[in-house]
# Entry
Amino acid sequence: MPAVDNVLVVGGGLAGTATAVHLAARGVAVDLVEIKPDVAALGSGITLQGNALRELRSLGVWEQVQAAGYAFDVTGIRAPDPFGTVVAEIPDAKTGGPDLPAALGMPRAELARVLLDRAAEVGVKVRFGTTFTELAQDDAGVDVTFSDGSADRYDLVVGADGVRSWTRRALGVHLETRSIGMGIWRSFGPRPASVTRTDLYYGGPSFIAGYCPTSEDSLYAYIVEPTQDRSGLTPDEQLATMRQLSEAYHGPWDEIRATLTDPARVNYTWFETHVLDAPWNRGRVVLVGDAAHTCPPTIAQGGAMALEDAVVLAELLTARSALDQELWDAFTARRHERARTVVEASNTLAQWQLDHVQGDVPGLMRSIAALTSQPA
# Structure
């Protein structure tokens, strides 16, 4: 008999939807609330490393993800010269195992749709445009009042509501989220035939210019610059700024730049980071995903860490018979240090670029690949 019979998941992103799917597929009654009105996600595309693909397979959606995304096994390094010269081709570690690609790019909104379709298939009850307004827990459960005026009681509440987690604040958990000093321009558009993998351009006026194919006919492109306040720019000015920054980069970037014409497909955010000290639960409410840990996408492990949180939490909740301290200790042992190590590595790579330091990038990447190749 599982440790929980019914669970509320707050947040319909990767961590929340994956947790809901794993629990519902194992017989737990799950409600999921998402404050946004639909599955549209901020941003453009996402890069999923092999360990993320391993967890998506465990969710029963690998075939859909494979069909909708674009897989590759090599990362290219290009020079910021007039030709976009390829200076290195680096085989990526297959952290999900030899039978899965090393990496796969996918539109964020499409990944959200695939996961929510799977949630509906296994019986998760999803409500959009809804969140909670009050949590009141005792030793036996959590009473929840919702923004639509309804109320219910659950054995457990999972807060998977992102970097600015309202669940975290409702628990009175203080966590400092800080900018690391980098901002990123992202755009979404058509994939030129020349783009068949992620290529990274280091140097020039920005820290990094890169792109990732997300399907047979789409990609997302990005440029990383020093953090600055871009909030006053109009959408047209944002588009013009990204185009201007991209002019230092060539090769496939020349084709990509020609498609940068729609301001609605450009967005700008800052890289941020935090790690919540253990434990991630307060009684019968637990935080997962970006609500507990977030990092810059320098090693593209944010999505994978969220998915790993989900699979470990669901496994423990359904394999054990009591929601007790032993269960939470096991969750902490399997998730906290692993997530912290990935966050710190991501931040280290960013700091080396900020400081113009030639750190041991290959060694750091090997250590993270060795860690994430082992299932969580």
Residues 10 and 79 are 44 Å apart (CA to CA). The chain has a mean pLDDT of 96.
